[in-house]
Structures are given as C-alpha cells and as structure tokens.
Design brief:
about 350 residues, mainly alpha, Cytochrome Bc1 Complex, Chain D, domain 2, two-stranded antiparallel sheet
Amino acid sequence: MSLKFKIQIITCVIIIFFQIGCSNKKDGHKIITNFKTPLGLENLKQYIPNDNQLTNEKISLGRNLYFDKRLSIDGTISCSFCHNPLLGFSDGRYFASGVFGLKSKRNTTTLLNRIFAQENFWDGRAKSIEDVIYEHIEDQNIFANKLDNVVKILKEDKNYIRKFNKVFDSDITGDDIVKAIASFTRTLVTGDSPYDKYIAGDKNTLSQSAQNGLKLFMSDRLKCSVCHSGPNFSDEKYHNNGTKLNIENPDLGRYLISKNDEDKGKFRTPTLRDIGRTTPYMHDGSIKGLHALVEFYNKGGEPNIYKSSLIKPLHLTEKEKLDLFNFLRSLTGTNVYFFGNR
C-alpha cells in the first residue's frame, strides 16, 4: 500500500466521520449539527465558530486544499509537508521547514485537536485556526506566497471553480480558501485511546505499569496534570518549563507577544494526546523520544531565572520512569481514521 493511498484513506474516513451528524448528506449546504465525539473528548459542536460552520462539502474542499502544493509560491509543498497524517499531523523535524529549504526557528506543533484551541502557535499570537492559515500562506519561511496569488492560481482550475461555487455560492476568494482549510483542520481529532477506555470502565486497556504511570502523572508529587489538564491534556496557557534560555539569542516565547517580563521563555502547553507519534518535543525540537522527555522533567529541566516553580527535580526511580512512559503511550488514539504506528 503506497504512502499516498494510506493518506487518502485517513483523510477520507475523517470526512465520513463528520458526515454522520449531517441532517442531509446529499446537500453540501446543510450545516453539520450532530457530532460523533470520540471517547474522552468534549462535545465538538461548541467549538465550531458561528462564522465558519462545518458542512460536508466545505470539509471536502478543505481537504483538497490541505494537500494542494499550489498554495506555496514554488508549488513544492502543501500543508501536509509539516502536518503529515502519518506523523500525528506533525513532521518529525526539529524545526518547521518551508519552501526553498527555509526553516522556522520553532518545532511544528500537531494539528490534532486544535478544534479546542483558545490561541495558536507556541506563543499564542494567532487567535484562531483561520489566523494560522492566513499567516502560513504568506510566511516567507513557510509558503512565501500571497493569498491573492493563490486565488489567481486556483481560478485557473475548473474543478476548484465548481467546488467553491457549490460550497460558498460565489467565486474563489482568499477568505473562503482559509475557511475551507480551517474547516478540514477542525475535523482532525483524536481520542478513544486506551486511557479513555480505561477511564470509561474497561480496566483491561491499561497495563499495570501504565496505571502506575497514570497515578504518578496525576499526583501532587509530580504535578504534571497542573499544566497538562482537561480532556485534551493542555491548559492552553503559557509556562516556562525549563527549556534552554541561558543561551545566546534565546527564544523568549510569549514575551515577544505580550512584552511582559514574566512571560520570558514561556510557551503554550501542547496536548499530550498522540504524543507517541509527534516527536521531537518542545518549541525548539530539542527533545527526541518519550524516554528523553521523561528524563528532562525528571532532572527539573534546564536552569533559568524565569523557570516555573512547578518544574523541579522529580527523583524518579527507573521503574517510575518506565511507568510514566507507558502511560504517555496510552494517550495515542485508536480511531480507525488515524493510521500509523502506535
């Protein structure tokens, strides 16, 4: 089975999953009102913006655009270049890459469960998924394009002209390109993991080691769940977790947006769902693999004057480290529309 075919299977089933709640599957203008939410997550409906409601046809159009390399200035990369379905909608690189081999200074974050986002990017500068797409298209280190130019290119494609007219009852516009991609992005959800099934009552889904890891994770001793809280294992807030700051020209994170000294070195808490598939970790991609991640927190991170008081040496035994590792692995969703190594 080819890589391209595998990706097609994933994304087609995602669309089918969301179509279940549509009151009229044959009508692309019918807003999807009933969502089949994966086990362990909050109801998805409340997170759909009023000005960009989901429809089957819009999600399908967004999926086409997501994989279309014509969004980039040289036609070489699409959204899936950095947000690969087979890598948990991340890219496995230390830093995000764009056209002409250019690199961002930060690690690519997963798109999984961004439907729950309050703010986006590591520093929270984008208030919505739509804002992220607008920025990426014109970011010189990513697509390096202009939205008007993308519109011009897509208007040369009769299939896109037909699809946009069907979805939006209008010609192709930049705003509608963004809305379609954002709609598809909001369908990228993961839940129904072994952990979720365990919490729901199936005590056979977690090994004893993973159960021990869960207790450690939630304990007052480790305090992991203070930041990695809620159904999506993220408080969507900003913390300095002890990632390198005492270096030349450090990335100051949230401070670059807020200009508050207390925000130096703070970054948005990422979700832990499907964390086994989204290595490397941290805003700078400096930690590769779950074992290394556990060890980083065990030693209390790297020293810096702005580090959160929550980050302290944990003094874990080797067994406890393994227990935490196994618990984190249990957060990988088992939904059929996410293909990849578990």
